[in-house]
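Data availability (excerpt). The following record was deposited with the supplementary files.
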Amino acid sequence: MGDYTYILQKVSAGDELLPEEAQYALREIITGNVSPARIAAFLYGMGCKGETVAELTAFVHVMREAAIAVEVDTESAIDLCGTGGDHSGTFNISTAAMFVAAGADVPVLKHGNAGVSSRSGSFDVLRCLGVQPGLNKDQVETCYRETGVAFMFAPLFHPAMAHVMPVRKELGMRTFFNIMGPMLNPAGVRRQMIGAFSRETAENIIRILANLDTEFAYAVHADDGLDEFSTTAPTHVFQLMNGTLSSSRMFHAGMFGLSASTPEELRGGSPEDNAMIISAILDDRATSAQREIVLLNAAFAVHASGIYDSIQDAFYAAEESLEAGKARDVLHKFAACTMDLQKT
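Predicted structure:
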């Protein structure tokens, strides 16, 4: 492939990397063969020229190959997460929705991180909910088989990122790793709901997933900036099913008979604050705005599993999960399992 200088020259000229060049460039970085200065130049240069879907697909292949694989049955299993970076300050909506989906008998293999662009990442709020979110590969596999729910803390399953993280922190800017994160599930789930920080990113994500072995996916971005389905503004929805991409369509919360809310009604805070909100939602003590945005996102996650034929049936299943206390019971069972495993 030649010297890394060739890669940097091509990127700085604004030229697209061939798939094999993109894979070579990233492999050299994650194996520690590239200096921090050159890593920074590569990340910055790629951002300036704009990453193509083909380049991003090549990057995802490299990162998936380098991940520590979680070996479980992924039939009907889903992951629901976002790119982050929407700076909305909401509570952890997708983390709450994972328990609602699981309460509807949908297997959940969630991949997440600690807070980077927000005060409270999924890792942080799960700890405050009584979960031990830092389980290793064997523990995650055991917990998933026993409860149907798993959380995979990204740094533990992507050790190759060790060479990249210091540079990303020093750069202090969004890079293509923000886009890739939701597509690097260590268990290899093939059904996903991904929120994105922009409409363009949501479209790119769904096109990348179409190049992989994805069975079904939603990629969404709301007009209020949320990387979730929103109840405060219309949401752009991209869908992938059996290799076929649908055109972008708009979804309004009123289509499910849900009330419009305001950003302030969805505001979160510290991990402890957000855990209190999630607990209130699962105990049916939350505000209608908090409850409904979780219900909305859970409904689409449930539908992504393929267990329910229609989104309306998936919504009813999510609603029952909340109202019957099934989502709350899943959280308690999952938390107990993770704590027991951590002691062994």
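Summary of structural features: Residues 4-50 form a domain with the Transferase, Pyrimidine Nucleoside Phosphorylase; Chain A, domain 3 fold (CATH 1.20.970.10).
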